[in-house]
Every structure is written in C-alpha cells, then in structure tokens.
C-alpha cells in the first residue's frame, strides 16, 4: 500500500483507525469555534441535540468570538453579541468580546490550537489553522452545534492537491502573491473538498504569519483544509506567543510520505514569480501586477484574517512613514486582534498610520464582509489585503475590489493607483514577530 498524505495522517489519528482519501469517518474534535453570526444558530442545534440539559463536550476548548459585527452596528448585532455572552456564561465556553480580535487570529495567538489538532469552526476561513500543522476546516452552524454536544463529527477524508515551491522569493513577493497565483492557476473550484498542501524550500523559509496566509485562502479554491507541515519554527512561534512549550507530533506524523498519492502536484520556481493582483470579482482572476498597474484606487483596505497581523500592518506603516496618502484616496486599517492593535500603539506605528491619513479601527471583520467600518459605495474602487472580492463583498454591488499583498497596497497608497511594489526601495522582510516580544 502506498504512503499517506498529511491530511490522511491527521484524520487517521482523530478517527482512531487507518483512513484514506474517500473514506467516511467519525472523528474526535479537539477545538470548536463559532462567532457572533454563526453562534446563535449553532446554539439552537446544541439545545435540540441535548434537550436543553446537556453540557459542552469540552468547555475550555469551545471558543466563541464577537468579531464580525464588532462593535455592534445595529440592534440585531447587539442581540447576537448578548446571545454569545449568555451562552458562554451558562456553559463555561471560552469567550472573546468586542475588540479582542478575529476568531482565527485569536485562537492561534492565545494558544487554543496546537499542531496535530482537529479544529472545526463555523466560518469558512477555519482552514487557517493548517498554517501551524492542524487540520482546520469550516463547518455549518448545525454541524457545529451537534459537535458542541458530542465532540465528534463526520468527514469524508479529502484527497490532496499539492503545491511545491522551491527557491528564494524575489523582492516584493510574499505569501499573498503565492496563494493568489495558486488560486489563479487551479481556479476558484479547483481544490473543492481537497486538502491544499504547501511544501518546498520556499514554504519552509516562510515565517508563520505568512504560512497562515496560504492556509487561510485554501477555501478560495474550494479547499476543505490548507496544510503546511509543522516544524521547529512553528514550535518557537507558538512558545513565544503563548509562553508555553509546544510539543510537535513525531516527524513522520507531520508530513506526507514520499510515496503518498496526490490528486495533482503543481510546481513553481520562486524566483520566477511576480507580485499578484486579483481583479474583480473573483479571487481566481489573478494577474501579474503589471497588467493592472495604473488603475485608479479610491480606498485601500488593510486587515482581515488573511493579512491583518502585526507584520502586515507594520510593513504598511514602514512604507507610509513620513508620507501621506495620495490625494483623493482613503485607507482603512483593521488589526486582526486587540494584541496587534496594542503592539502598533506600543511601537509608534499606529501614529505613523494616522499621521499618513489612515483610519485605524477596532479589531474585527467589518469592512471585509461589507458590514461596517468602511463599506464601499457605487463606483468605488478598492485595493484590499482581503481574501474575497465578489460583487458586493465590501459594500455596493457597483463597487470593484482588487486583492493584493500588504506591500502592494502600501506602495499603491502613495500614488493613488495600483503600483508594482518593486518600485519601492527597501521593503521590509519579517521573520516571526511574536506579539509577546514587544509588550513594553
């Protein structure tokens, strides 16, 4: 029999048996997450399954966040927030409130997820957790509600679509450019119900905050999960973030076997890649930045669970230091967590952004989903570090959203039009910047 993929290994461990792609299994869940939009419906299912008298399968590993309509943008949102608070208080779930941050950022930086875990979230970008070697996947509210009661959920073990990148990334090219290129190559549905696995010397060299970008956007090509094999860099990152030592699975359990079977393999040379921009209105519309350079931009948006981490916003601040936004443009910045927000304050980078003309807001998901905090109007053109650019995603159905890396967004802010970031000298490179490193 052939070897196993990383996805097959992770799910075999949680099913308690040897499983292969295509098998249907019941698997033990390690961590379950819901937020202010998906939580209330999940709670209804939980009450139906338990008859209103049951307990959570693991209160300390049930994580509830208030992040989408945060702060509340209306009465219904406020009521949903109260439902989250009340359920958490009644059942002992771990709850994060307004301003604490986006679910996927908070679960990692607060140490709720570890390599090898099976994490389900009632949010499609729960694929993010694969950036530290966990099997993270999004589920519906009803499935989540059932799992909250039972601690188990059924899965079909996915095939694996493998992306291999070798070599050194050129100046101005980041993980966001890699994933946009991958999505452009395989298409928006090219990885449907598969695991997207990212390997090669280029991926191994990426700091953890950039690995999370790859796994976060696996869903933008239909992926059931996204996976980067965990390594010592992940262990060091998590230890610095949480202050606790992290034990990695055995080496053979955190990578695919050499003779594993993949649905397909896509190979790249890093030095041949250019900065990417996804044109409206689908992430798969990825092109080299030169094809859209010169496109006028009304709004620049920096944030989301994809690129709202400290390193992303710090890069933008470094480009804007001593500068102002191009005339006629506006910039909305939304950190991915309260910890990121405080770090920007501590380092003085918050002041840099504000002095340049940016509006910095409380951590959350508002602009990305078009709820509040900076939605687009008719005819507006936005260049965003977000993950989706469907019609109406960030506001008006008559607006246009382009997706790019923080570097491309930052440099474009200086000119008011989409600009190749390689035209800017001295773009910073970041290694792992654990939030705990700058607390003073």
TrEMBL record:
Instruction: List where the protein spans the membrane.
Output: none
Annotated residues that bind [4Fe-4S] cluster are located at 305, 365, 368
Enzyme Commission identifier(s): 4.2.1.33
Key word Lyase present: yes
Gene Ontology MF terms in the entry? 3-isopropylmalate dehydratase activity; 4 iron, 4 sulfur cluster binding; metal ion binding
Q: Kindly indicate whether the keyword Lyase belongs to this entry.
A: yes
The record describes the protein's role as: Catalyzes the isomerization between 2-isopropylmalate and 3-isopropylmalate, via the formation of 2-isopropylmaleate.
What is the protein name stated in its UniProt record?
3-isopropylmalate dehydratase large subunit
The scientific name of the source species is: Salinirubellus salinus
Annotated gene = leuC
């Amino acid at each position: 029999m052939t070897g196993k993929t990383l996805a097959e290994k992770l799910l075999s461990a949680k099913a308690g048996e040897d499983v292969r792609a295509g098998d249907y299994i019941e698997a033990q869940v390690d961590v379950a997450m819901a937020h202010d939009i998906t939580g209330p419906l999940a709670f209804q299912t939980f009450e139906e399954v338990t008859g209103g008298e049951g307990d959570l399968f693991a209160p300390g590993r049930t994580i509830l966040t208030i992040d989408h309509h945060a702060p509340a943008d209306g009465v219904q949102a406020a009521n949903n927030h109260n439902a989250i608070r009340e359920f958490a208080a009644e059942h002992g779930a771990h709850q994060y409130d307004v301003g604490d941050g986006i679910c996927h950022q908070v679960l990692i930086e607060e140490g709720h997820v570890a390599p090898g875990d099976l994490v389900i979230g009632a949010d499609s970008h729960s694929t993010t957790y694969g950036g530290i070697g966990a099997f993270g996947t999004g589920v519906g509210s009803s499935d989540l509600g059932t799992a909250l009661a039972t601690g188990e959920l059924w899965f079909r073990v996915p095939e694996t679509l493998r992306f291999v990148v070798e070599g050194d990334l050129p100046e101005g090219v980041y993980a966001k450019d890699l994933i946009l290129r991958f999505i452009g190559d395989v298409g928006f549905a090219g990885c449907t119900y598969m695991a997207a696995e990212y390997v090669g010397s280029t991926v191994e060299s990426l700091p953890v905050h950039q690995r999370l970008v790859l796994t976060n956007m696996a869903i933008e090509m239909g992926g059931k999960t996204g996976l980067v094999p965990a390594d010592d860099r992940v262990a060091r990152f998590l230890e610095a973030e949480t202050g606790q030592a992290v034990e990695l699975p055995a080496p053979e359990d955190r990578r695919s076997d050499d003779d594993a079977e993949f649905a397909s393999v896509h190979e790249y040379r890093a030095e041949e890649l250019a900065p990417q921009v996804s044109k409206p209105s689908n992430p798969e519309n990825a092109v080299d930045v030169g094809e859209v350079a010169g496109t006028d931009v009304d709004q620049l948006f920096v944030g989301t669970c994809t690129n709202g981490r400290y390193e992303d916003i710090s890069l933008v601040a470094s480009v804007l230091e001593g500068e102002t936004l191009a005339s006629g443009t506006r910039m909305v910045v939304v950190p991915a967590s309260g910890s990121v927000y405080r770090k920007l304050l501590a380092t003085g980078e918050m002041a840099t952004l504000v002095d340049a003309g940016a509006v910095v807001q409380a951590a959350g998901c508002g602009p990305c989903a078009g709820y509040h905090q900076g939605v687009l109007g008719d005819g507006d053109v936005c260049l965003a570090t977000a993950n989706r650019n469907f019609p109406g995603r960030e506001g008006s159905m008559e607006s246009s959203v382009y997706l790019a890396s923080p570097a491309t967004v930052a440099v474009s802010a200086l000119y008011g039009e989409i600009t190749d970031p390689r035209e800017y000298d001295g773009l910073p490179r970041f290694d792992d910047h654990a939030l705990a490193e700058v607390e003073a």
